[in-house]
Amino acid sequence: MESRMKLVIPTEEYKEQVLECVEEFKNNGETRVHGSGSFEKMNSYEEWLQKVEDDLSKEKAEAKGRVQAVQYIAIRKEDNKLLGFIQIRYRLNEYLLKCGGHIGDSIRPSERNKGYSTEMIGLALKEAKKLGIGNVLITCDRENKASARTIIKNGGILENEVEDDGKIIQRYWITLKKRFADGRNKAEHILEKDYKNIKINNEEFQGNISLLNIKKVKFPWYVDEENRCILANNYKWLEIYPEGKKYALTVIYDEKEEVVEWYYDIARKVGEEGGVPYEDDLYLDVVIVPDGRIHLLDEDELEVVYKNNEVNQKDYEMAYKVAKELMEKYSSKENIEKLSDFCNKYLKIIQKD
């Protein structure tokens, strides 16, 4: 369904609409316009525009004690009417981690209860993903049930509640790092595919095993210094999602059904959505090559998000713990052979199913 609105960075042409909208908030008894980058503290529209411009620069924003942010206004496509404000912060400082979150937003009083807030947050999440934010924190007052509903509709999971200035603030996290077994995350690269999933519950394994049969790709993918191909026409990805574990395994088979590599994604959570398994990616990956080499990948990405407070201390330590256990386990040639036998067995099972 096409969105009814668009997010635009404010310019001088929107001055009259912005001033009118802010006045509507005031007339409704609201002294603060959430998601506007503190418009109510500005002396003029022009001063606010300058702040909007400055906040796009990491250096300028931090020089004034703020975090880098992008400010949007939501414009209804049908009649070009301003519906509300929404701001995306690139990272979290101490206060934003506790109470403010990555995204602040508000819909003007006359346009509430029409689904616009849910839609606006959805659009903002797409922009946040483009900015490289993998896990988004959004907060709201506990008393604001409508706001909580819009966050939950966009995938928000309540972590906890904190007190701030006499109010109880709810902190919701929305992951933008879900990787699904059916290949939707690689839709731009995989042109033709088949997909199937089976649930296994026996003494050997409990969980989901999926097969992504990749018939045609836009172009092959090569990795490693040896130019190892991991995605090409007629490749198969066997994806294994064990219950209760903090990882998912992708076994990459070439066109001859020979293993190219075993790729472990360390995951905050392994789950299922709409009947399709997924893992909530925690950045760190362990890759095992059939000749016994083991690679630990994306430590730099994990460090960045940890520094930006997108990953907490507990998950950070868990990611390294799980990665270390996997690397130690598969340093044994015997365990690699067992892994190979297990994966080949279930590849045959799912192909016959």
Low-confidence stretches: none
Shape: elongated
Which architecture of the largest domain per CATH? Beta Barrel
Strand content: 35-45%
Domain count: 2
Enumerate how many helices there are, as a single number: 9
For this structure, what is the CATH class of the largest domain?
Answer: Mainly Beta
Order of secondary-structure elements: EHHHEEHEHEHEEEEEEEEEEEEHHH
Tell me about the largest β-sheet. Answer: 8 strands, antiparallel
What class do helices, strands and sheet pairing give?
A: alpha+beta
What's the N-to-C terminus distance?
Answer: 35 Å
Query: How would you state the average pLDDT, rounded?
Result: 95
Radius of gyration, in angstroms, nearest whole number: 24 Å
CATH topology of the largest domain: FomD barrel-like fold
- Overall strand count: 17
The percent range for helix content is: 25-40%
Can you describe this structure?
The chain has 9 helices and 17 strands. The chain is α+β, with helices and mostly antiparallel strands and 353 residues long. It starts with a strand and ends with a helix.
Task: Give keywords.
353 residues, alpha+beta, Aminopeptidase, FomD barrel-like fold, 2 domains, 8-stranded antiparallel beta sheet, 4-stranded antiparallel beta sheet, elongated
Give a topology summary.
Layout: E1 5-8, H1 15-27, H2 45-55, H3 58-63, E2 69-76, E3 82-89, H4 94-100, E4 103-107, H5 116-130, E5 135-141, H6 145-153, E6 157-164, E7 167-175, E8 178-180, E9 190-201, E10 206-217, E11 221-223, E12 228-231, E13 235-242, E14 247-253, E15 259-273, E16 276-288, E17 294-297, H7 299-307, H8 313-329, H9 333-352
